Amino acid sequence: MSARVEQCLSKIANANAVPALQQCLIGLERESLRVNTEGKISQTGHPVSIGSALTHPYITTDYSEALLEFITPPAGSVDEALSFLKNTQKYVYDNLNNELLWASSMPCVVAGETSIPLANYGSSNSGQMKHIYRRGLGYRYGRVMQVIAGVHFNFSFSDEFWSVFQIIEANKESTQNFISESYFGLLRNLQRFGWVVPYLFGASPAICKSFLGGEDTPLQAFNENTYFHPFATSLRMGDIGYQNNKENEKGVVANYNSLNEYVKSLRYATETPCPEYEKIGVKVDGSYRQLNANILQIENEYYSTVRPKQILMGNEKPSLALFRRGVKYVELRSLDVNPFVPLGIDQQQLYFLRAFLLYCLLAESPPILRNEERAIDENEISVAHHGRDPNLKISVAGKQLNMRQQGLQLCEAMQSCCDILDQNNDSAPHAASLEIQKQKFNDPDATPSAIMLTEMRKNNEGFFHYSKRLSEKYLAYFSQLELDTAVKQQFDKLAAESLERQKQLENTETQSFDEYLQEYFAQ
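Below the sequence we write its predicted structure tokens.
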């Protein structure tokens, strides 16, 4: 499992490239619902005091006006990323009016589709596009599943590392091509081994019954207001979460075997009409219901667990940015919000993920064929719904093997990655985190999903009351924190500047929205 990994690590060490390897960057995107004191989804607008959701670099909204998203810039250390996230959330808490931030991935009581306000980004063309895109998602999939929250982990290696690694690999391509194809190898392995993420960090084994709106379900009743599955780890990543099932049925699956194939597959999905979505209509009685009637309105609608990313220039399509400038970083999207910590993610998770992505880069990564695509999807769903079943098997190279044994083997294979990342660090945080993850494979009761159900039973709480209690606990935590004056002033400045940028956009645009949309899709 790890022969190539060991060989690469040895060459990196011999080339004195360990410091360059350790300079990897991480960024976080944490989503959280604003709820009122009763625990219902907030019906108030995005707080003006924290800035414009359209133009603020670090505080925005996702699908709903009530679904906040906190974004950290690339950070050189785990502590730096978490510190920025903590300051951001503290600033937002200080500007909330008698509201809470929901502590779990799965939403609180949902009073039907109309209880979920669409995110509003103002009257500019870019703001209208973001709003109409979300309206289209509601028509296509329903609004309820759009308010599930998660944490995204962004990761990149340093330019210095890539320079040395290309020499080590004796690669003669252009640097940009080498980096992109290396990242795509990483992404393929991240999918192959991605089932470990819901097992180790999944924290959504139960949901509020209101989430399903009275629909039939194979889930069991935990109490009068909660459904659960006894062995579930992450229902968010399972059948009830946001999956592109309709797109997959139409044969649209992003191809991760190369950058060109990936771009080609997404372009096909965003340029091919879908009869089912044509029935919805695009512009009806002068009002847009969706951006278009294609299989995907835009590329972001394809909700995979991983994405290659490039920083966009202006109104650039993501696939065009990748085609022009290659992969800048990768995004892992399968993390549940960690309900046991105020920030929704902690150090142990981030140290493990850094080592995990290094392993995924260095391990053999052959192309993913159709049979393996299906196996990857099946493994993810199986672990999401049945991960703590001691007899659960997953598909590995065409064989059905015990999931926990595979997890332990993966951890053993990752040991050297942890060791090299821990070099010259006496506390060895990567190795320490790896030991904690091994314990979870040895004992499913140590997983977050098991601990969550245990605490719910102990406190005689359903999902809603359990999550509301934690949300109130973190409100108290952030209330006691003091935000550094300089940090507060910086956030105040960012808020004011973002509002001014939005205003300028709205006041200076001369192009009609129809023209704007046509120009965007013509790229």
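The longest strand covers residues 25-36.
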